[in-house]
Write a structure and sequence with these properties.
There is one protein chain. The chain is of the alpha/beta class. It has 2 domains: 15-141, NADH:ubiquinone oxidoreductase Nqo5 subunit (Beta Polymerase, domain 2, 2-Layer Sandwich); 172-229, no CATH class. The protein has helices spanning 15-28, 32-36, 59-68, 125-136, 181-184, 225-228, 249-256, and strands at residues 42-45, 49-54, 74-82, 87-95, 100-108, 114-116, 139-141.
Length: 257
């Protein structure tokens, strides 16, 4: 009876092995100079992955070289990035036979967001490019069926662009703490028909009212304005006259003397 061998997950290579693979890949990428006309500039990004910048004009030729000459048979992902002054498409490739990973980036103009489709090189780019078009508005020239894949066809805008607004901007009046203090106490910044009474001495009675129709301390209901106007209403815009001053003890004694 044949014994079934248990599945053994692939061990994560140590940094020494990764560095050796990256060094070998860097040597294999040297012939790109014949395609692009300049020596490839490589950098190592997080995760010990080699990253390469590719000009848009050489994108398809570079992709065919990576697939046919270096064995990158698996397109892992395509991502879009908005840098405000330009856009980028980021590609991740995997060579399964040699366990190598490679990233390359293509710069795209904001005014003309177009780049060549790589569906003819890797068929798996079909849906990935549609997703980037759907969210970033980047058009992939030569794509067999470029249309939205996540959002409705009549959706307006591209939601992952930093310039995208989900709704019209709302402009609100600045708070009183954001304006000049002199402007904050100006009449046009105050709520109409409601004023706060100034705390005065006890038993001031009707003198507590500031203007006609102004509620007293505890009452802010509009129904309180009618009885407030019935007695001794002052003209609009004027303060109530101060209460009559009571004679002091010195004045009383002077009168009797």
């Amino acid at each position: 009876m044949k014994k079934i061998q248990a599945f053994q997950p692939e061990k994560i290579p140590d940094r020494r092995i990764t560095h050796e693979r990256n060094a070998a890949l860097a040597r294999d990428l040297a012939p790109l100079q014949q395609i692009t006309g300049r020596e490839p500039v490589l950098q190592t990004i997080q995760g010990d992955i080699l990253s390469l910048e590719v000009e848009r004009a050489h994108l398809l030729a570079v992709c065919r070289f990576l697939r046919d000459q270096l064995g990158f048979d698996l397109l892992v992902s395509i991502s879009g990035v908005d840098f405000l002054d330009h856009l980028e498409t980021v590609y991740h490739l995997h060579n399964r036979s040699r366990q190598q990973l490679l990233q390359f980036r293509v710069r795209i103009e904001v005014q003309k967001p177009e780049v060549e489709s790589i569906v003819s090189v890797w068929l798996g780019a079909n849906w990935l490019e549609r997703e980037i078009y759907d969210l970033f508005g980047i058009r992939f020239l030569g794509h067999p069926d470029l249309r939205r894949i996540l959002l409705d066809d009549d959706f307006e805008g591209f939601p992952l662009l930093k310039s995208f607004q989900a709704m019209p901007p709302v402009i609100k009046d600045p708070a009183t703490t954001q304006v000049n203090p002199n402007m904050a106490i100006d009449e046009k910044f105050q709520t109409r028909n409601y004023e706060q009474a100034i705390t005065g001495r006890a038993r001031q009675g009707r003198a507590e009212r500031l203007h006609p129709g102004t509620p007293t301390f505890g009452n802010t209901q509009a129904s309180a304005q009618i009885p407030a106007n019935l007695e001794n209403a002052t003209p609009s815009g004027e303060s109530a006259p101060p209460p009559e001053a009571k004679p002091t003890s010195t004045e009383k004694n002077g009168r009797h003397s």
